[in-house]
Structures are given as structure tokens and as C-alpha cells.
Design a protein that fits this description.
The complex is a heterodimer of chains A (about 70) and B (about 500). With about 70 residues, chain A is mainly beta. Helices cover about 0% and strands about 30% of the residues of chain A. The N and C termini of chain A lie close together (about 10 Å). Helices cover about 60% and strands about 5% of the residues of chain B. Classes of the chains: A mainly beta (about 70), B mainly alpha (about 500). At the A-B interface, β1 of A face loops of B.
Chain lengths: ~70, ~500
């Protein structure tokens, strides 16, 4: 199945993490470690989350493992 | 504002790390106060809500600082000492934290001027764009240094204040200096750093509030996290024309703990889906300690509770003299007292706990679980234990010294005024001989929750009731020992 979605690369997890573009122009990273506590978030890409990030890329993935770090097809 | 469903190819991503055992069980035991009391929600949604609460608090705060600076130096005759270290402290530790989480932060005057400097508004919201926030904010809006995005500064700050507690809680001018200093610091930091960086990373009160609020019977959460997943604005976090972006950097869609939510209620106003609930829940519902900074906060608070019990309730006056260095000038003794206090809080208690974790690691039979993971997980046990020990310690404050509140209301500066006719109210300790009858059941309640939650933690860690039970033995013995030690201090 053809899946196209936007991601940002996390060098800590060494994989592309799905992101969601919000209507107000920011992105949110669907990191499985997220607990909603940005105040103490130690995620490697915390500076990208809820930002207007230019580092987003679109990937096209036909594999069965088109699940990203969140574990579900997008 | 977003209400549209996402019709694009992106579906709702599942989350591998589902909320843990305590969250899924406890979700069944929530009562949404906003649904039960719609008037409460209506009030909270008013833009003037927080300002209306903070303003009178700020006025009292100002009076307290003035009283501390120019009022009588006699502690029990000065409103600064009586209101802060008797009334406020007792209300905070015994009522607000266990029953209403970080409700103090809702009304705290310390960030008032900083918030105003950032928003240039007391009530109105400014939509716009400032960094990740969709509001117009002023100030430099610098991100807090990554190395300090934890509560270590708060840990050290609190420990420092407590080291000088003999001065702090008896000298009005010291109290005024500390409070005034925190107010200035909070304001200055708000000019440079974004949002509530002072509250999140520096304020020493915030430090222990963050840990102990995990036990609270109240929480602010999203009603339905699926709604949050579908939400295309995440206005709770980034703000909109109805509310400021969360000053505490909280994204409600994923929030699982009370630790860093200051209950400012902006998300209640900004949420486009009316998806925020103010829940009542069982005591000590959250058990997840995320980092060593939080674990050490638990060690520090417990060590301090024990230290104060020894110093203030013990029979040996030597340590009290060492602590009261400005009166006794026993600097050598003060150095020894400081060394003992800091090493107990930062080294000895954690080391004992680590030793217990090693024992748990062996006794439970689950040697595949790293000791560090056991250490971190079980450090939560000290949260209900420590909070209730502090409450039990604070009971005499209000019962023995509470009568000073009545007299000081009429003569706040100790200048011989009698504003309300109560200045002559004599000191009257209330049932001092019966206080152990309140303290002992409290301590046993703390022990119960420590053991109960310790078992739950063991179940999550080891996935085996037998292992959980065995694993609880070392920490259970420690918790019991601590409880009985407190009892011996309080009973005498």
C-alpha cells in the first residue's frame, strides 16, 4: 500500500517520526515518549515539536513497516 | 479555530506506550467537576478569572513584605511570619496540595509582574505569533537552557532555603527579603526567558509542589485524548484568540501527571473542542517518577522532614543552636549542621534507597530489570510518605501557634494597633496534648499509601504479583522504619 506522510528524522531513535501539521502552521511530533510535559522534555527533537519547522520531509513508503515510531500506518 | 475532522490520509496514530496501569485503572474513578458544577466552568472560563484571584493575593503579599521590612522583628507579632510560616504553609501542605494539586500556582503573586511584562495585559488575550506560541508576547522569549530543563535548581534552591530556615521562619526581614527577591527574580527572568520559566525551573516552592501534586485528589486533563489527536490547532499548548498558550508548556492531549500543570486554566479557555475536565480522583493516583531530579526531590523532602523533627522536636538543643547561627554565632556548628543536612538529603538517604533497590532486585527474582529502573520507580514511595510526614509535622504549627493569626490580623506590623479588636488575643495552643492522636493516624495513612503504591509499582515493573510482593519487602521495611521514627519524634 502506498503511504505518503510527513516525518522528521530523530537521530536518537534513528528513524523517521511522524509529524502532524497543524492549521496554524506549527508541527507536532507524534513521539511515543511524549507525556505532554514540554517543560522537562528531553527528547532529541524537542526544539522541533510545536515549531514552524523546515526540517520536515515527506517520505513515500510501500513497505509493511510503514508504521513509524508510533506503530501505526498513517 | 479548528473543529474540522481530519479527512486526509493521516489517520490517528496509535500510541505504543499506552498510559500505565495506574492511569488506566484510575480513569474509571474520575468525577469531572466542570460537568458536575457548570457554574464553576463558567467562572473559570472568564478571562478575568485568574486576575480576580491573584490581585487580592498580591495585595496581601505586598502587605506581608512591607510588614517584614518595617514591622516588628518579633516573629509572632509580625504578619509576615505568622501568615507565611504558620497559616500559608499549613494550608499549602495540608489542604491545597493533597486536595487541589498546584492550586497555589493559580493564585501565586510571584509571577504576576512577569506575566504582565510578557503579555502587556492583565486580562485580554493577544493573538499573534511568538516562537511556538500563537499569541503576541513581549520580552526576549529565550528558551531556557536545555541542561537546566529539570528541577535540580529548585531542589538546590529549596535545600538552601531550608538550611537557613531558623532565620527564615523567625526573622520577618529575612522572610520579606526572600519573598521580595523571588518576586524580582521571577519578573526579571520573565523579561528574558519565555513564559513561566521561573515557575517551571527556579521557584523553590514549585519544586516540591511539582512532586507532591502527584498525590492530589484533583487533576486537570483532557476529557477525550482522541479529540486531542484530531485537533488541528492544539490551542491548549500554543494558544489562540481565546486563551494564552500554556505558560507551563503543557500539551493537554498527552498530559498524564500533575507535576508541571500550574492550573492557570488557560487551556479551559482556549480549547476549541471544550475538551478539558477538572477531575476528582483517588489520592496518590500517579506513580510515575520520570527522572532522577524528581526522585532526589523526594529524598530531599523526606530528609528535611526528619531533620526538622530532630531539630525542632528533639531533646538536644545543640543542633537547634547550630541551626540558629545568627543568634548563637556558632559557625562551626552551623557548618556541621549544613554538612549533615545536605549529605543526608543528597547522599545518605538516596544511598540507602539505592541499597534497598539492590535488595529488591535480588529478592524479587527479576534480575533482568536494571537496579536503576527499580530505584527510580520505587522512589515514588517517598512521595505519599513524605507528604503526609510533612502534614503531620505541620499539624502542631497551626494547632499550637494558630492563635497568633487572630492577634496579628489586628496588629499586622506589631506596632500596637488594634484594627479589629483582636490584638489582645492571647496565645492559646489548641489541644496540644491530643495532637499525636491526629499525627499517628496520618503517618499510618502515609505508610499505607506508600506500601500500596509500592506494590502497584512492583506489579508494573515485574508483571508478577509474587515478585511485586517480595520486591516490596526492603522498601516496605524502610518506609515502616521511617514512619515509626516520625511517631517517636511526635509522641516524644
Amino acid at each position: 500500500m502506498d503511504n505518503t506522510y510527513k516525518t522528521i528524522f530523530c537521530s536518537e531513535c534513528n528513524k523517521n517520526i511522524a509529524i502532524e501539521e497543524l492549521e496554524n502552521g506549527t508541527i507536532i511530533i507524534h513521539c511515543p515518549r511524549c507525556t505532554g510535559e514540554c517543560v522537562t522534555c528531553d527528547c532529541h527533537i524537542v526544539s522541533e515539536c510545536f515549531s514552524d519547522s523546515p526540517n520536515v520531509k515527506v517520505i513515500h513508503d510501500d513497505s509493511d513497516e510503514s508504521n513509524n515510531a508510533t506503530g501505526k500506518k498513517l | 479555530m479548528d473543529t474540522a475532522q481530519n479527512t486526509e490520509a493521516i489517520q490517528e496514530p496509535a500510541i505504543i506506550d499506552k498510559p500505565q496501569l495506574e492511569e488506566s485503572n484510575a480513569k474509571q474513578k474520575r468525577t469531572d467537576l466542570f460537568e458536575k458544577f457548570p457554574l464553576l466552568k463558567k467562572i473559570v472560563k472568564l478571562r478575568s478569572f485568574q486576575f480576580a484571584l491573584i490581585l487580592p493575593n498580591l495585595a496581601v503579599f505586598y502587605l506581608i513584605i512591607i510588614a517584614g521590612l518595617i514591622g516588628t522583628p518579633v516573629g509572632n507579632k509580625n504578619i509576615a511570619i505568622v501568615f507565611i510560616w504558620i497559616l500559608w504553609w499549613f494550608l499549602l501542605i495540608a489542604i491545597m496540595v493533597p486536595f487541589a494539586s498546584r492550586i497555589w500556582c493559580t493564585v501565586c503573586p510571584l509571577p504576576f509582574f512577569g506575566d504582565w511584562a510578557q503579555r502587556l495585559s492583565f486580562i485580554k488575550v493577544r493573538p499573534g505569533k511568538t516562537g511556538t506560541i500563537k499569541n503576541k508576547l513581549y520580552g526576549l522569549n529565550i528558551k531556557w537552557p536545555k541542561l537546566l530543563t529539570n528541577i535540580w535548581m529548585q531542589n538546590i534552591g529549596f535545600l538552601t532555603l531550608c538550611t537557613f530556615s531558623a532565620l527564615l521562619v523567625t526573622r520577618p526581614i529575612v522572610t520579606a527579603g526572600v519573598l521580595g527577591g523571588l518576586l524580582i527574580l521571577g519578573t526579571v527572568l520573565a523579561l528574558f526567558y519565555r513564559l513561566r520559566s521561573f515557575c517551571s525551573y527556579v521557584c523553590p516552592v514549585s519544586g516540591f509542589l511539582s512532586l507532591y501534586s502527584m498525590t492530589s485528589t484533583m487533576e486537570l486533563r483532557s476529557k477525550d485524548t482522541d479529540e486531542c489527536l484530531k485537533c488541528k490547532s492544539k490551542a491548549c499548548r500554543v494558544g489562540n484568540e481565546d486563551g494564552w498558550g500554556c505558560p507551563w508548556f503543557i500539551y493537554m492531549g498527552k498530559l498524564e501527571r500533575n507535576n508541571y500543570c500550574g492550573l492557570c486554566m488557560e487551556c479551559v479557555k482556549s480549547c476549541p473542542n471544550d475538551n478539558i475536565a477538572l477531575n476528582l480522583r483517588p489520592f496518590a493516583s500517579e506513580t510515575k517518577i520520570k527522572g532522577y531530579d524528581e526522585a532526589w526531590k523526594g529524598f530531599i523532602m523526606l530528609a528535611l522532614a526528619m531533620a526538622y523533627s530532630v531539630i525542632l522536636l528533639g531533646t538536644d538543643g545543640t543542633i537547634k543552636d547550630w541551626a540558629n547561627v545568627s543568634e548563637t554565632s556558632m559557625w562551626g556548628g552551623f557548618a556541621i549542621y549544613t554538612l549533615i543536612l545536605w549529605s543526608a538529603a543528597l547522599v545518605i538517604v538516596p544511598a540507602i534507597f539505592y541499597g534497598l533497590s539492590i535488595l529488591t532486585h535480588r529478592i524479587s527474582g527479576s534480575t533482568h530489570i536494571p537496579v536503576k529502573k527499580i530505584f527510580l520507580a520505587y522512589s515514588y514511595v517517598l512521595v505519599p510518605l513524605g507528604l503526609i510526614a510533612w502534614i503531620a509535622f505541620s499539624i502542631p504549627l497551626i494547632f499550637v501557634n494558630g492563635s497568633y493569626i487572630i492577634s496579628v490580623i489586628s496588629d499586622p506590623l506589631g506596632w500596637g494597633w488594634d484594627l479589629f479588636g483582636t490584638a489582645g488575643f492571647h496565645w492559646q495552643p489548641l489541644i496540644p496534648e491530643y495532637l499525636p492522636l491526629i499525627q499517628i493516624p496520618l503517618l499510618l495513612t502515609g505508610l499505607y499509601y506508600a506500601l500500596n503504591r509500592g506494590y502497584t509499582i512492583g506489579l508494573e515493573l515485574f508483571n508478577d504479583p509474587n515478585a511485586a510482593l517480595k520486591g516490596l519487602i526492603p522498601i516496605g521495611i524502610f518506609s515502616s522504619g521511617v514512619t515509626f521514627a516520625f511517631m517517636s519524634f511526635f509522641i516524644g
